[in-house]
Amino acid sequence: MTASLEVCGLAFAYPDGHQALFGVDLRIERGERVALLGPNGAGKTTLVLHLNGILTGGAGTVTVAGLPVGRQHMAEIRRRVGIVFQDPDDQLFMPTVREDVAFGPAAAGLRGPELEDRVRTALERVGMADFADRPPHHLSFGQRRRVAVATVLATEPEILVLDEPSSNLDPASRRELADILRSLDVTVLMVTHDLPYALELCPRSVILSEGVIAADGATGDLLSDETLMRAHRLELPFGFDPRSVPTRP
Ligand SMILES: Nc1ncnc2c1ncn2[C@@H]1O[C@H](COP(=O)(O)OP(=O)(O)O)[C@@H](O)[C@H]1O
Ligand SMILES: [Mg+2]
Question: What residues does the ion ligand 2 have nearby, CB within 5 Å?
Fold first, then answer.
C-alpha cells in the first residue's frame, strides 16, 4: 500500500549555511496519528516546511500518497498536505469564517452547492458550523484554531500536519480539539511539546533531535524511557506517569 507520507534521506541547509536536517527517514501509513517530538532547534519546523514544498532544494525526497513533492505538482501537493500553523492568525484572513474555509476548495476549482457543502462539512467536523458568518477575529483563540483546522480539512487533505495544536488553549479548548482530532479519519502528524497530548492522541511518536530521527516507536514506550527523554531534553509534567494513561485508538 502507498504510504500517506514518505520522507527519504532528507537533508537541508539554510542559505546561511546552517544545516538543520541530516538525513531524515520517515514513513507514515494512511490513517496513522504520529507525534513529532524534539527539543527547540531540532529541525521540526524545517521538516514540516518540506512536506508541502515551502522549503525545497536539499537532498532526499518527500512523497505524499505516492506524489513527489516538487515544482511540477505544487498545487496538488498543497491540497494534499494540510498544514495548521501554530498561530491561527497566520491562516485566517478573510472577512468571514465561511470565506476562509471556502478559500482552498475554491482555489481548487469547486463552485456553487458543491463548495457550500464542502465548507459546511468542514465546519461541522470542528463544531463551528454556527459561526460561518462571523468574522474570524471576533472568535476566541480556541475557536480560531478550530476554524484553521477546518480551512485545511476543506481541501480533503491526505495528511493533516499540526504545529503545536494545544499551545495557548485553555483546558476545555484543549480537550475539545483532542476530541475533534480523534474523530477525524485522516492521517495526522502533530508537532508538539505537550507530551500528555501526544500520548493521548498519537499511538506512535518520533523524536527528531539535531536533524535526525533519534527514536521512533509507541508513544508510551518512548515517554517511559527516562534515559531517552533526558538525552533529548524532553520533560514530562511534574508527577505525570505515562504508564497511567491507557492508549486509545
Ligand atoms: N531561516 C533560517 N536560517 C538559518 N537557520 C535557521 C532558519 N530557521 C531555522 N534555522 C535553524 O535550523 C535549526 C532547526 O530549526 P527549526 O526547524 O526551527 O527547529 P524546531 O522547529 O525543532 O525548533 C535551528 O538550529 C535553527 O536555528
Ligand atoms: Mg519549530
Answer: 44-45
What is this structure's pTM? 0.94
Domains of the chain, by residue range, sit at 5-244
| pLDDT tens digits, 226-236 | 999 999 999 99
Which numbered atom of ligand 1 lies nearest the CA of 38?
22
User: What is the spatial distance between Cα 187 and Cα 169, in angstroms, rounded to a whole number?
Assistant: 23
| Cβ(43) – ligand 1 distance below 6 Å | yes
Percentage of residues in the chain with pLDDT exceeding 90?
93
CB of 71 closer than 6 A to ligand 1? Answer: no
Q: Is 54 in the pocket of ligand 1 (CB under 6 A)?
A: no
Of the candidates 209, 199, 158, 168, the one whose C-alpha atom is nearest the C-alpha of residue 47 is: 209
DSSP label at 180? H
Q: Which ligand has an atom closest to residue 39 CA?
A: 1
pLDDT reported for residue 245? 78
Please enumerate in sequence order all residues whose Cβ is within 8 A of that of 247, keeping only pairs 6 or more positions apart, or say none: 199, 203, 218, 219, 220
Q: Is any atom of ligand 1 closer than 6 Å to the C-beta of 211?
A: no
Which residue minimizes the CA distance to atom 16 of ligand 1?
43
Confidence of residue 247 (pLDDT cuts 50, 70, 90): low
Percent of the residues in the chain that have a pLDDT greater than 70, as a whole number: 99
Ligand nearest to the CA of 47: 1
- Give yes or no for a contact between 81 and 158, defined as CB atoms under 8 angstroms apart: yes
Among all ligands shown, which has an atom nearest to the Cα of 49? Answer: 1
Contact 4/158 with Cβ under 8 angstroms? yes
CATH fold of 5-244: Rossmann fold (3.40.50)
Q: Over the stretch 131-157, which tens digit does the pLDDT of each residue have?
A: 999 999 999 999 999 999 999 999 999
